[in-house]
Amino acid sequence: MSGFGAWPRKSDRDPPVAVTSLIQRQQALQAWAAAQLAECGPGNLVGDIVAVSGDASFRRYFRGITATNSVVLVDAPPDRENIQPFIDVDRRLLAAGVRVPQVMAADLAQGFMALEDFGNELLWPALEQQRLAGEYTAALALYQQCFDELLLIQRADTERLPAYDDALLLREMRLFSEWFCAGLLQHPLADSELQLVEQAFALLSRSARQQTQVFVHRDYHSRNLMLLPAGGIGVIDFQDAVLGPVTYDLVSLLKDCYIEWPRAQVRAWAVAFAQQAQARGILPAISSEQFLADFDLMGAQRHIKVLGIFSRLWLRDGKSGYLKDLPLTFRYLQQVVMEEPSLAEFAGWLEAVIWPLLLPAIERAKAVAAQGSRVQP
Fold this sequence. Notes:
By secondary structure, the protein is of the alpha+beta class.
């Protein structure tokens, strides 16, 4: 269930939760779940709850077994996480017909939830197996199921949904400057470099805001999509949903930071989705060339952000597992900016200054991780 993770929303400098507190919260979650599940239908818990994942947030996930089925139990410390957005977005998506887990019970004050259990099969391993075998037709069958869910998501209720506005888009990209450049690469930006990246950020933000605005999951990729036991795709990790660009979730899916397909194949799949979105009235009649241009620039924004987030997960939270995904994420970014004339100077800077620093920085971080410690920026 690692896909349930989301990036922390509290202070970048918050200390980790004490182990004793985690143990106490697990015990409290078990007691709460036992009472709630007995009342809401699944029945009494059988045995102790078992941890099923850790992820990129302060939330933890457990599985509880009852006489009739299993449930996922969520521990979201209320001083670090707010489960109300999850509950709100879950209701919107269920109403739109999206296959998201039903919330069986929730306690906002304690930060506990009991959710429908989607099992353990993330989409990523199946896609990776097909990629390695060159089975693009089989991969498309899975992606089409993801497209079907995404088309439902994009028509979900957006009333009072937070906007993916200029402030949020820029705040996300500035994680690149702080955590990736200054932090991981140990290359604080000079004033001239900062001006260069801010100009690039502004261009990408404008492009995003000019696109058709729809309901955006905001982390729609192969580790947040699940192959359900009864068939179909289950959608998780949607609590950060916003009203935003129509290409955002698609580029998250097809330019996934955990899996790479040939560029021509990605673009063909993107155009196929655009045609389906136009047929459903989600996307206005625009050319394939314009859609792909929007798609690529949206990907650049996302990958700039993700470089910062993956770096922060290591530097702040000691989670080294994302370091291996940095080179692919960087390549995605390079590929787009090298082909965009208005980003030529930014592309040249990435190639000449930033790329040579990346692999040595990853090796340094891995060496530190192997020693069981980390270095704060």
